[in-house]
Amino acid sequence: MEENFIPLSPDDKFRFSCTSNLSCFNECCRDLNQFLTPYDILRLKNSLGISSGMFLKTYTSYHTGPETGLPVITLKTDSASGSICPFVTPSGCRVYKDRPSSCRTYPLARLVSRNRESGSLSEYYMTIKETHCLGFSDGKEQTVSKWIIEQDVEPYNRMNDMLMEIISLKNQIIPGELDIKSGYLFRMALYDLDGFRSYLFTDKEDHDALSESDNIALKQDDTALLVFALSWVKQNLFSNASFYDT
Hints:
By secondary structure, the chain is an alpha+beta fold. It has two domains: 149 residues, no CATH class; 80 residues, no CATH class. It contains ten helices and nine strands. The protein has a three-stranded antiparallel β-sheet, with no helix packed on it. Strands 2-9 form a two-stranded antiparallel sheet. A hairpin with a 6-residue loop joins β7 and β8. α6 crosses α7, α6 runs antiparallel to α10 and α9 crosses α10. It is globular, with a radius of gyration of 19 Å.
């Protein structure tokens, strides 16, 4: 393993702090290739007070993953500016409270594997020591678990694990690209939540299957809608196999 990636268990300690007093402040927001998860987009579009469709159009780029055949959404940056994040300001991140999971986990990276027989998840973390970052030089010591709690990463991890389950299922039964319709529905349901909400409440079959309480929750709560969308994708696009089949 490369020297700048150091594996850690949840109980291991590391030393790190990021403050505006460091000369490297905001440097980690440059030269970005930032992948966005569905929950990242949910939080960001709500923070900005715009629809998911407007967020995707304004702030993201889209392509199909060569290995999974699934949509890949990345944050759009301007190469002329050094590929700097569109949300960074001289005083820091203007969407800090709703920043993406990889930003709030930094300087850690999370890796997860799933046992095919039991379905249980195993996770470990790595510190990412980049040459520009001075946060390790005089930072406070804390455990990985404490960092995850302090940075409010858990809701992101929970949603991202649900997405990983769907991707694993898809790769079992459809190794290549999805057909055009399935690809469109996958992208809409998980990344364009406002578009999916409109679709859901105009599709009679899906709408009739909802209880009155579901109707209310899915109309008002984006997190509840994303959880439903993840289940909906699993049932409607990949229902021909069990996730735990071997």
